[in-house]
Amino acid sequence: MATYEFTVSVRTQYLPDQSDPERTNFVFTYSITIKNTGTVAAQLISRHWVITDANNHVEEVRGLGVVGHQPLLQPGEHFEYTSGTALQTQQGSMVGEYFCVAEDGHQFEAKIPEFVLSLPRTLH
């Protein structure tokens, strides 16, 4: 039986050299690994992010692919990329999903688990 699944893992980093705390601008990168843990080859078509800062300001981002790519992943293959975002607070979070289409035409979503963006030593 066919299974349709991408597993997503995330690493984050604060970029002090690109941030300006006096102007409430905090820049973070996030490195994503997407692995096809299903049994059918599938392509990542688009993304949807919900970015929330510590003041509960929410920004939604939608777009095609990731960093200019729409990777086609065979079972067991993975794709890695790094992107970034700026917040007006020292902490925030991101959550979302990738919209995917398998070789056989089946459409599915790959959930991106919520992750925290935080300056080092500020998370409580």
From TrEMBL:
<dbReference type="InterPro" id="IPR007474">
    <property type="entry name" value="ApaG_domain"/>
</dbReference>
<dbReference type="GO" id="GO:0070987">
    <property type="term" value="P:error-free translesion synthesis"/>
</dbReference>
<dbReference type="InterPro" id="IPR036767">
    <property type="entry name" value="ApaG_sf"/>
</dbReference>
<protein>
    <recommendedName>
        <fullName>Protein ApaG</fullName>
    </recommendedName>
</protein>
<feature type="domain" description="ApaG">
    <location>
        <begin position="1"/>
        <end position="124"/>
    </location>
</feature>
<dbReference type="Pfam" id="PF04379">
    <property type="entry name" value="DUF525"/>
</dbReference>
<dbReference type="InterPro" id="IPR023065">
    <property type="entry name" value="Uncharacterised_ApaG"/>
</dbReference>
